[in-house]
Automatic annotation (TrEMBL):
Residue ranges of domain SGNH hydrolase-type esterase in the record: 16-197
Gene Ontology terms, MF aspect: hydrolase activity
Biological classification of the source: Eukaryota, Fungi, Dikarya, Ascomycota, Pezizomycotina
Protein name: SGNH hydrolase-type esterase domain-containing protein
Organism domain of life: Eukaryota
Alphabetized InterPro entries for the sequence: RhgT-like, SGNH_hydro, SGNH_hydro_sf
Amino acid sequence: MSRISGSANPPAFLLAGDSTTAVQSADLTGGGWGDGFIATLRSGAGGINYGHNGATTVSFVNGGDWAKVLASVAKYKADYTTFVTIQFGHNDQKATANISVAEYMTNLKNMAEDVKAAGGTPILVTPLTRRNFNISGLASEDLAVQANATIAIAKSIGSLYINLNRASTDYVDAIGATNAATYNLKPTDFTHLNTAGSVLFGNIVSGLIDVAVGSSFGFNIKTYTKPNATIAKDVASGTYIFPSGFGTLPNNTLPA
């Protein structure tokens, strides 16, 4: 592991979430921002994408994914400052999930507390926007309830959080429906991301984490999270960009 001389342990990011965090699947059923975010890590930082297609705050725990995340916190915490991003909501909101908003909030709280107990730091993440647009030409903010609930529970327990829902909504509103659709995993899928979308929104996450973490852990997080300057500039100005030339994105950059 390449570590900056004299610094605290570099960060490790373990990404817990549904298909809007997960790797771009070969069968085109899921793909999110996770790998695009991991690709922004530098200087000995690393990450693992544990996103699971179709996951809710209940199934991610009951299906064994959460145990894997917590085991990785235990594994890496001696050598890394270990963060766990927690982003759910897309599937929790569905009637078939039978998960109330109150239960969703409790589940997020329990997950954050599990991370703390394991020796890591949770970062709650509001859900990535869908790229469906209303007749006014703006994104249909159909995850606002889950986004607000995520922020509320983060504040109530004093957890770090990033408002990806707001940032991603603002960006797709700025570039419009036609441009936003170029990030679709397949033409009719306005939820999941192709590789360019993973890079774009992964860079947005990286920038948000820069602000949320800052210099609070014995290092300046910007030493380790390096959003692409061109992408960051275009996002800030609301200018459309289709990232290219990034090759195969990593889903695990931590030592075995």
